[in-house]
Amino acid sequence: MKRTRRTEIVRYSRRFVVREGTSTATDPEGGLNCRWCASCAMQVALISLDDACMSGLSLEAVQRQVEAGRIHLVTVGGSPLICLNSLIQI
Questions:
Q1: What is the spatial distance between Cα 6 and Cα 61, in angstroms, rounded to a whole number?
Q2: Domain extent listing, the chain
Q3: Burial class (CB in 10 A: 0-12, 13-18, 19+), 62
Q4: pTM of the model
């Protein structure tokens, strides 16, 4: 009796879809709000905390990542915004 061997390969990935004009952190023209992130040392797209939570992380998890320095928080006009570049990298 011949035995058949089966190998299953599973690939997990995280995908972000950024739809311009739907974020609460958009500029007046409806595009993404791009500002300077001191931690990244470059211009980056910024999103609101609520939008960051749509990535699958809870608000508490986002706050823990900010406190740990893995997600960058940028304050623009008194509003806290998340650096999209740092969110994608976690």
A1: 37
A2: 7-90
A3: buried
A4: 0.67
